[in-house]
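Blinded run. Sample ID left blank on purpose so nobody reads anything into the name before looking at the predicted structure. Input follows.
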Amino acid sequence: MDKTTVGRIISEQRKKCGLSLSDLCNGICNKSTFMRIESGELNVNTDILSRLLERLGIHLDFDEASNFDDILVRQIIRNANQADVTGDRQEALRLLNTIGADYDSFSLQNKQRYDVINTMLLFKDGVTSAEARLCNLEKSMRLTQPNYSFENLPLIMTDMEEQILRYIANTYTMIEDYNSAIAIYYHLKFYIENDTDKVTSARKLVNICYNLSKCLGLTERYTESIDVAKESIDFCRFTNNVCMLPMCMYNYAWSLTYRNKSDDRDRAREIILEIPAYCTPMTSDIDELKKNINNLCEILGVSNHLPNRL
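Blinded prediction complete.
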């Protein structure tokens, strides 16, 4: 990354943090030197740059980045991702555009990170289809897993590769290829269950098991769906995941309802009645959950005023 780009990044981050020129450079370099750095006139030495970046909240992780270019690119991608999470997609796209011209010089990992968030943003904005999203995600996976294919799922993955594989499974769900999604979710479940860090693995497995249970139910594999839904509820409770717990409980009740063996619907009614007690302002997709519970209440003969209390 050239000195002009470095200067622009520092300038933008400084203004975002509400720091004056003097605030940022105080104790690191004199103001005139800093002005030349920020304007892109001066190549800065690594000691000064690392201290400036640290003051800007850009933390250097040399275990995962080989040089300052890697670090700066990774931080901008993180900022773009955070902007997307908070709903500011325009800011996320703007941040990606500031580094897009340097794409060819990115490390493979940063190319992967950039491609993934760009793919997700374009899909959310309706620019690309679910099929194009799937193709782009698989292409991103092959940057670090060259032999990747649906028939050759990776046996060892980085956190980023796990995330991409989850997105791939989600995309198969979107195009209603539930069997492909199930195969990938089971692969991820088995892989993550073998992680020695049980708390971290449980946090990941909440989402994996929720989606797996849903896909199993949609393919009428109700008993499997029920078993996996129970696991997702246990993982929610183990990790205190109040956002996902009501949704996992709904999956459990839904599959019990449609399996409809002896006592299944009685148990489903019990679960439906329990769900409101676990709903909080942080509950994921609360409006969709209300609608789904309303529908299930009608099938089960539960008073339909219940979901309005959620």
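Unblinding after everyone has recorded impressions. The first helix runs from residue 3 to 17.
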